[in-house]
Amino acid sequence: MRSRGECRRLRETRVVDIPAGVMNELLALYRELDDEVAQLGPSCKQCGRCCHFAESGLRLFMGPLEASVFFEQPLPGGLTDKTTCPYLVEGVCANRSGRSIGCRTYFCDPLVGETLGRIHERYLNRTKDSATRIRMSWRYVSLSEWMEHRGPG
Q1: What is the pLDDT of residues 16-60, one digit of tens each?
Q2: Which runs of E-coded beta strand occur in 57-150?
Q3: Pair type for strands 88-89 and 92-93
Q4: Of 95, 115, 128, 152, whose CB neighbour count within 10 A is largest?
């Protein structure tokens, strides 16, 4: 359980303010998603390809609920160029718990790609439903756009 001061600090750093109940729902959804993906057993080469956007041609998109959790973790070294995930530090994700649905469902493993795509859409729709329920404006935009919206630090 977080203290009131800690919750206030987190609200101040979020991209959008999220009611505690919805935040708990999202974190539970992430745990459920991680369990479902683990059951598939996709292989990860830990090459960082997914985090090097310019090299891979990939773009990371997320909705407002995901962005709030994603940016709870302070950026290591502040905002950097937009060609690489700002949380990729020495080849390792420095924000494992705050990863978006896209981060949790992308693997280079071709054997599970289609299945993970369906799982991604299902969980993304659930976050969209949560946002709609609390009358939050739905924006599904790239990480670089969220970084511009968030500003430095």
Answers
A1: 678 888 999 999 999 999 999 999 999 888 888 899 988 889 999
A2: 61-62, 88-89, 92-93, 141-142
A3: antiparallel
A4: 95
